[in-house]
Specification:
Elements: H1 2-43, E1 47-49, E2 52-54, H2 60-64, H3 71-79, H4 83-86, E3 92-97, H5 99-103, H6 109-113, H7 119-127, E4 130-132, H8 137-146, E5 151-154, E6 160-166, E7 169-173, E8 179-189, E9 192-197, H9 204-209
Parallel strand pairs: 3-9
Antiparallel strand pairs: 1-2, 3-4, 5-6, 6-7, 7-8, 8-9
């Protein structure tokens, strides 16, 4: 009986040792993977937006949540249940309004849009800022020149935006004639590109409701 206890104890010790070793190896592999990813991110060509580096290896949502200038946009994307969409393969071209752009809307507009009963309208407004495919700044400029000063961009929402040039700046105008300026272009993402704009774009039908 005593011998059996000794053997059992020994087996338990060996099992514990193997388990501990396995855990240590798993942790080491995780740490190495993390270190490898961190090194890869350090080599990436990033753009600073809202005080944070935007990494081309991350998707639109993963980058946007780190920008202090886009907290309202992120809150709207979450309220509209569009997180999964904007994390998908895409690719998408997103014209991303800053917090200041949302603040410039009539008082109470953002709070109203964030209400659950207005989710459909919010989805329409947010997807109005999204164009299917990847359109870098040079692509937009090329389209403007081809269109002799103007380029019509069809949004995911189904409406249209008009792109034009003012000096060296790209101007994006909505269906109501309200213009926004691209302040930071070519913020590359793993599933597309973001262009930061200084005004919220609104489809014609939503303007009438507000």
């Amino acid at each position: 009986m005593k011998r059996f206890k000794i053997i059992t104890t020994a087996l338990f010790a060996v099992t514990l040792l193997i388990g501990t070793s396995s855990f240590a190896q798993d942790k080491m592999m995780t740490d190495k993977k993390k270190e490898k990813m961190e090194k890869k991110m350090m080599k990436e060509k990033t753009v600073m937006v809202g005080g944070a580096a935007m990494y081309p290896s991350k998707n639109i949502v993963e980058n946007a949540v780190n920008s202090k200038d886009h907290t309202t946009l992120v809150a709207a994307v979450k309220a509209a249940d569009l997180v999964e969409t904007l994390q998908s393969k895409g690719p998408f071209t997103v014209f991303a309004p800053t917090n200041a752009a949302f603040d410039a809307l009539p008082a109470g507009t953002v709070a109203t849009l964030l209400k659950p009963e207005n989710k459909k309208m919010l989805q329409g407004i947010l997807t109005y800022h999204v164009v299917a495919g990847t359109m870098k700044a040079n692509d937009i400029v090329a389209a403007i020149k081809k269109g002799k000063g103007k380029a019509t961009l069809t949004t995911v929402a189904g409406g249209t935006l008009t792109a034009s040039l003012k000096g060296k700046s790209v101007i994006v105008t909505d269906e109501n004639g309200n213009a926004s300026t691209v302040t930071i272009a070519n913020v590359n993402q793993s599933n597309g590109v973001i262009h930061v704009i200084d005004a919220v774009l609104l489809p014609a039908q939503d303007m009438k409701k507000m």
